[in-house]
Amino acid sequence: MSKDFYKTLGVAENASQDDIKKAFRKLAKQFHPDRNKGDKAAEERFKEISEAYDVLGDEKKRRQYDTMRKYGAFTGGPSFDPRHSGGFDASQFERFFRFDNAEGMDVFSELFGSIFGGGSPFRQARSRPRRRASRGRDAAVSLSVSFEEAMRGTEKTIVAKNPGAGIKQRRLRVKIPAGIADGGKIRLRGMGFPGDNGQSNGDLIVTVNVKKSEQFERRGNDIHSKVTVSYPDAVLGGKVQVKTLTRTINLTIPPYTKSGTKLRLKGMGLSVNGTQGDQYVEVVIDVPDTLTPRQKELLEELQKTFV
């Protein structure tokens, strides 16, 4: 057996998965390239640690590896002894181990490469192509922002796990584009898991969760809101303060405005991909709960004029 992964991680052969994980995190933190700039020896050590954990940290791969150690490299057996068969019988060896997928074949090739002169006998017997080095996997994280922040655009700091560095975390600044929708995704290139054999890193996918607003509602690029006005202002006209996404303005209420009327604020909506939206303000007439004697008297007099 060319590599002893248990020795690489410094754990016993009967170590639990938790012990293996703890050992890997400790060593990965010690030899990670980010902490050993320019140290080739540390870089190689980190690769060895990662390779060992890739096998021992996976229950299926670990069982295959342990079986290889027991039967394929140290003790052998009649089926695998060239003296008994006149040569190595790859088909017998393959029937014994029964690998289910190409990934398992790659593990075998790594472990027995030095014994069989480079490359698995399975590959010679079955002519299966070698698995190519692949790009790193993408990582994912969620981020919540207020409705106003999502509409105006902002920057946020997120704390994400640093792939390949054990439990180490990193802080990243994320630019939230104006007008992003709830569930929108932002891709941070190269911030995901490291690739195999020098291949590019994966990306970090940030899913943005937009909180609901009590004042605004989005419909496409338009913003909808409501404003309450008194009955005299609705009938005679007046001004009322209205909030937009960027500031508070004085909105003119035309005379004889009915409840439910929507007044348009041109250009006060969202600007997304060159398209500018508007804000629509729905007028709600306030009906008082109580009246003073004088107010009631005046309304009764007014009511008589409509008869």
Short description:
By secondary structure, the chain is of the alpha+beta class.
Architecture overview:
The protein is of the alpha+beta class. It has 3 domains: 5-126, DnaJ domain (Helix Hairpins, Orthogonal Bundle), CATH 1.10.287; 139-210, HSP40/DNAj peptide-binding domain, CATH 2.60.260; 218-286, Urease metallochaperone UreE, N-terminal domain (HSP40/DNAj peptide-binding domain, Sandwich), CATH 2.60.260. It has 11 helices and 13 strands. A hairpin with a 2-residue loop joins strand 6 (217-219) and strand 7. Helix 4 (59-74) packs parallel to helix 7. It is rod-shaped. The chain starts with a helix and ends with a helix. Mean pLDDT is 80; it is low at 73-125.
Q: How would you summarize the topology of this molecule?
A:
Elements: H1 5-9, H2 17-31, H3 40-56, H4 59-74, H5 82-85, H6 90-97, H7 102-112, H8 121-126, E1 139-145, H9 147-152, E2 154-161, E3 169-176, E4 185-188, E5 204-210, E6 217-219, E7 222-230, H10 231-236, E8 238-243, E9 248-253, E10 262-265, E11 271-272, E12 275-276, E13 279-286, H11 293-305
Parallel strand pairs: 1-5, 7-13
Antiparallel strand pairs: 2-3, 4-5, 6-7, 8-9, 10-13, 11-12
Low-confidence stretches: 73-125
CATH fold group of the largest domain: Helix Hairpins
Question: If you average the pLDDT, what whole number results?
Answer: 80
The proportion of strand residues reads 15-25%
Net shape: rod-shaped
Tally the helices: what do you get? 11
Main β-sheet, in a few words?
Answer: 4 strands, mixed
List keywords for this structure.
307 residues, alpha+beta, Helix Hairpins, HSP40/DNAj peptide-binding domain, 3 domains, four-stranded mixed sheet, three-stranded mixed sheet
